[in-house]
Prior knowledge:
Distance between the termini: 20 Å
Shape: globular
Helix content: 25-40%
Mean pLDDT: 87
Number of strands: 7
Order of helices and strands: EHEHEEHHEHHEEH
Strand content: 5-15%
Radius of gyration: 17 Å
Number of helices: 7
Strand order of the largest sheet: 2-1-3-4
CATH topology of the largest domain: Rossmann fold
Amino acid sequence: MKFIADSMLGRLARWLRLLGCDTLYWPDIEDRRLVRIAGEEDRTLLTRDTRLVRMRGLRRYLLLHENDTFEQLRKVIKTFDLLDLLGTHPIFSNGNMGCVPLYPIYSRCSLCNTPLEEVPKEQAKEHVPEYVYLTSDRFRQCPACRKFYWRGTHTERLRQKLKEIL
């Protein structure tokens, strides 16, 4: 499942990316272009705009009435059964995975949606805090915006937040 979020849903788009969902988002995109990209790339439009869902050419959408980002995230996860797709990930289970999830968590750049690539530890040395470099073994980098990612305390915070909202 691929998504495109309207300009009102930037925080939701970022959370979906953290969960590994392919989610496009531009803060200043025109409605017609948004609908065109959704159709061309077979994406489901996530929106809070009732006028937008009436535009000609829009095939799939989810109209969100929730104001809170986490309520919006809960609705998207439940509407599209994403929990089943994410459920084998250790963030939701006891760590005994039976299979690889369709949407691997932390597999996309939270800023630009590009799939992350594993990089050698040495490559991260000049780009991450010294403590992180010394205590982490695995690093990922976005090939588009060059941002570095590593496993840290945010993993547990994400797990707890997801347990709260689901």
